[in-house]
Design goal:
7 helices, two-stranded antiparallel sheet, Spore Coat Polysaccharide Biosynthesis Protein SpsA, Chain A, alpha/beta, globular, 277 residues
Amino acid sequence: MKISATIITLNEERNLPRALDSLDCVDEIVVVDCGSTDRTREIARGYGAHVVENAWPGYAAQKNLAAARASHDWILSIDADEALTEALSAEIMRLKRGEPGAAGYRLPRRAQYLGRWILHSGWYPDYKLRLYDRRRGAWQGDYVHESVRVAGPVETLRGDLLHYTCDALSRHLRTLDRYTTLAAHELRAQGRRAGPARLLLAPPWTFLRTYLFQQGFRDGYQGLLISSMAAWYVFLKWAKTLESFQPSVVSYQPKPQAGSAPPGNTEVSAGPKKADS
């Protein structure tokens, strides 16, 4: 069993070395870049990665292109702001020595937010299907909810995938604004509308669920911020959806922005599991 790691990038010179350093368990690294103006491509080539340049087609399409350019059928897809723990790397190495019994493998993801590893708030364990056989699976999703779907059994690994999210609240706010716009486009495409009741009730319910029921209070002040931002995300998502149905509003598709997209993870906006509130 040989594995190709894939990463999609845009101006990720800060994050990319950490991600690449953690990939000692794979046989190939493929980086698909959509127009970086920093040293991203140079850094990737310095690690021996196969670098492909491709204009931005959307998250799922770009990740599927990366898988298609790989030399091996088993794909380990990570984002530039993620890294494998030593335990996860060792677990994948053991898996490679035998015949895989599944079409894909979920990885528990642990997020760092404003300098703290988040173990509650609905953020951990944030299972992601990232190791898969491309002959039996692919990325799906048009806007912000892309994920791998496979035809066959899925098993779960124990080692953590580390996710280095926001190191500043201002960055979280920018990310939230961008992804609520994308989420509103997705909801509009589905013909879904928001009424006053949803705008009034969904945000406070989201805060209560995250802070109390998912024990965000155990994550310190970061948990309070995560809960508050989750509520704000829900409000903005539905407010922008309502706005998009107004006749004077011109619909547009935001392009990825330097240093923050394409990260492939929209979870920092509202937590790894965004409820359709």
